[in-house]
Amino acid sequence: MKNNKVNLAVVGLGNMGVPHTRDIQTIENTQLVAVCDIKKERADNIAYQYGIKAYYNYHDLLMDPDIDAIIIATPHYDHTPISITALKKGIHVLTEKPIAVHAKDAQKMIDAYTTSSMEFPDLVFAAMFQQRTLGYWKKVKELIDTNELGKLVRTTWIITKWFRTQAYYDNGTWRATWKGEGGGVLLNQCPHNLDLYQWIVGLPNKVSGFVKIGKYHNIEVEDEVTSYFEHENGMIGHFITTTAESPGTDRLEIVGEKGKLVCENNQIIFFRNRESMLEMINKSEKPFDKVENWRIEIPFIDDDKHPHRQIIQNFVNTIQQKASLIAPAVEGIKSVSLGNAILFSALKAQPVSLPFDADAYEALLVDLIKQSDSKKSQGNEEIANINDSFH
User: Fold this and answer.
1) 232-286, pLDDT tens digit by residue?
2) Spatial CB neighbours of 302, under 8 Å, sequence gap ≥ 6
3) Which of 78, 171, 255, 339 is an S-S bond match for 186, by CB 3.0 to 4.6 Å?
4) What pLDDT shows up at residue 304?
5) Worst-scoring range by mean pLDDT, 110-114, 188-192, 377-381?
6) Are the C-beta atoms of 76 and 47 separated by less than 8 Å?
């Protein structure tokens, strides 16, 4: 660090990397010193814009002694080797979601971080789970953590606001392929939702997945998912998503003995029970009795401006030992494992227990890559404005 600023580099200058370079300019205690992309013209253009260095190979970038930390915004499979190489050199890492394509690669990254931390005790390894910064989700988690709902019995998330056209999938040869991306809606659109699910109510111990491959799009990965979860505490869960519904739905219901939360349209509604419904089941002498409840709109601080920037700022502050990480990358294996388990269960046509056999899942993924007959054309790989993608 020089002049009390963290020297950052961005690896991967696509739809996420370019906005990250802009966000860095607004953060006082950091500075962008280099960018890296395998497309030389793309790296040169951004480097010229900011008067910084351009690299076209991450190995060369990571040899630069001026770099303190990197943000990885490359296609998914590249997150693992780039992270491991950087961590071994004592370079702080903030990786885009998902942290890896499959749980085995995620564990390799965590192992590299654990080992490297012995040599570099202040090493920081973070993930871009910016939804955790939103007041909306922080309030939902607070209500669960403080036991406002009591014993949880059901969590259902219908998240189908991920509508994508064929043109979206045709933009880039790596997209929506087993070899290039490693999955579809679960790996590309839903890592944030999967992270929030486990962050708020925890991981299930058994997963039953029902998945359709290329049902609505000419792609070789999943574009429709219905899944059923069983949790150790008896709670059941549902996770339903697709990239083919318009208008879509984003509705999370969490039901406990003390009431129900309905999270939709940027509102948190708490149907608060006067008494435990589980107690009412056993004590009431009326066959059609109901638990009295009140409808309460839960207020929250709407601090959702620039969530990506907040994660970068938190990453830099943690490097300078001024904060703790909002989204440690070691937690990223949870959402990866949940997404993997849904797909694994669907392809095996049987429930999968967590933790599952990561080697067996990797082998299945390798087979899918080998069997791929995709002859995807080069298409028009543009840098798109993706602001409307987030909700």
Assistant:
1) 999 999 999 999 999 999 999 999 999 999 999 999 999 999 999 999 999 999 9
2) 135, 136, 266
3) 339
4) 67
5) 377-381
6) no
Would you say 113 and 142 are in contact if contact means Cβ atoms under 8 Å apart?
no
DSSP 154-177: EEEEEE------HHHHHSSTTTT-
Rounded to whole angstroms, the Cα distance separating 315 from 6 reads: 10
Q: Cα separation of 44 and 38, whole Å? A: 11
- Match domain 135-303+335-389 to its CATH number in 1.10.510.10, 3.40.309.10, 3.40.50.11890, 3.30.360.10: 3.30.360.10
What's the pTM?
0.94
CATH homologous superfamily of 6-131+306-327: NAD(P)-binding Rossmann-like Domain (3.40.50.720)
